[in-house]
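#dry-run=false #mode=assembly
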Amino acid sequence: MMIKLKTAIPGPKSRKLMERRAKAVARGPFHATPIFLARAKGAVVEDVDSNEFLDFAAGIGVVNVGHAADAVVKAVAEAAERCLHAGFNVTPYEGYVELAEGLCEVVPGDLPKKALLVNSGAEAVENAVKLARVFTGRQAVVCFDHGFHGRTYMAMTLTSKVKPYKLGFGPFCPEVFRAPFPYAYRWPGTPQAAQGVLHTARHRARG
Ligand SMILES: Cc1ncc(COP(=O)(O)O)c(C=O)c1O
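#status=ok
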């Protein structure tokens, strides 16, 4: 398992795809790397120019058993063959229940638990806020400076960084209060603190 570079980075095929991307895809999604992926296995990512890299991102921590793990590919193929999409709220199916049972088992705590499967982190955050409001009967939500919670309206309101996530998108959701995070890297007195203070001031000015 090693890095194999065959072209300049990004290679010619990646550069061409980036031109097509610029024309056809909205500017919203940014790219941490300028290479286009062709395939990936385990921790190795191969780009469209046949360069191979070691992947330290794993789909931002999502593919945590490695890319295209044989057992995962087999399970996905079998599930797709049985039924590609049903809608649990139309016809429930065992796989949903089985995954919920597994999640409840691994979540710590000796207490009754239930799981809800949703499409994204933002949707999970939105639903967590809804449940907390109903359960507590209270509306206010406290979030922290420097946090990222997603791009939907409540999740975006909770998100700290203004650019690129919030600039010009207000008004935001009410009853959200931001607290400083006990983050030693930006504690007062460190060189990074000035940057943090600047960021917070900008954030407060822009809502
Ligand atoms: C801590 C945290 N919360 C929420 C989200 C939002 O997830 P999604 O992009 O799937 O909506 C992310 C995504 O990176 C995240 O890191």
